[in-house]
Amino acid sequence: MTEETTTRHLLITGHVQGVSYRWSMVQAAERLGVQGWVRNRRDGQVEACAWGTPQAVQALIDWAHQGPAQARVDRVVVGNVPDGGEAPQGFTQRETV
Fold first, then answer.
1. CB 2, CB 60: distance < 8 Å
2. Has 94 been annotated as catalytic?
3. Is the residue at 43 inside a domain?
4. Lesser CB count within 10 Å: N end or C end of the chain?
């Protein structure tokens, strides 16, 4: 990535597991050109990390507040990632933690 990039960590709560939330987020991220990952957590939350232009990452955060039609999003906590690290290739689903 040669443009300015930003990295954000997201924790999404609500009815967000078993409703294709992760798959839908992957599709949204790919449309927006955002790289990163998404995974379920055993506590019922969905966790994601997104790398991209500030505008694209914000668009994905905006999407996260709605999610797919079957989801009910109660809260999205967005955090900074101090050293963002190196962005992965693409946007992938990871194993549950």
1. no
2. no
3. yes
4. C
37, 54 contact by CB (below 8 A): no
pLDDT in tens, 43-86: 999 999 999 999 999 999 999 999 999 999 999 999 988 666 67
How far is residue 7's CA from residue 27's CA, in Å, rounded to a whole number? 18
What pTM was estimated for this model as a whole?
0.91
Cβ-contact 49, 37 below 8 angstroms: yes
**Structural domain containing residue 57:** 6-83
Q: Which of 39, 40, 72, 80 is catalytic?
A: 40
CA separation, residue 5 to residues 2, 50, 82 (Å): 8, 10, 12
Domains of the chain: total: 1
Q: Encode pLDDT of 8-23 as tens digits.
A: 999 999 999 999 999 9
Q: Which of 22, 31, 39, 42 is catalytic?
A: 22
Q: Tell me if 40 is assigned to some domain.
A: yes
Locate 41 and state its tokens: 């957590």
Reply yes or no on whether 22 is catalytic: yes
